[in-house]
Amino acid sequence: MYPKAIESYFAPTTVDEALRLLAEHRDSKLLAGGQSLMPMLKLRLVEPGCLIDLNRIPALAGDSRGRRRPVPWRDGPPCGGSRPIR
Predict the structure, then answer these.
(1) How far is Cα 52 from Cα 31, in angstroms, rounded to an integer?
(2) CA separation for the pair 9, 29 (Å, rounded)
(3) Residues 14-37 pLDDT 10s
(4) pTM, 2 dp
(5) Are 50 and 74 in contact (CB under 8 A)?
(6) Better-predicted residue by pLDDT, 72 or 7
(7) In three state form, how does the secondary structure of 12-25 look?
(8) What CATH code is carried by the domain that includes residue 55?
(9) Could you give the CA distance from residue 50 to residue 70 in angstroms, rounded to a whole number?
C-alpha cells in the first residue's frame, strides 16, 4: 500500500523555524530519519497534512552525547556520489 499525497513539505534550517512551522501546522509530523515514520505512512497508520524535515538543522546534528552525526546532503549523497552537494 502507498501513502496518500502529503499536502506540504517543509525543510527548516533553524530550530525556531521548525517550532514555528509545528505551531502553524497542527496536523504535521516531524521527519528526522524516517526509520519509523516511513513504514507507518506506507501502511496508512498516520496521514499527516504536512511533513517537517529536521535533517537540515545544524543545531540538531548530533546524538544525545553531543557527538556529530552525518547530515544528509551536507556530507554527500546517501548513495555515494562523487562529491558532496553544497
Answers:
(1) 6
(2) 10
(3) 999 999 999 999 889 888 876 788
(4) 0.65
(5) no
(6) 7
(7) CCCHHHHHHHHHHC
(8) 3.30.43.10
(9) 25
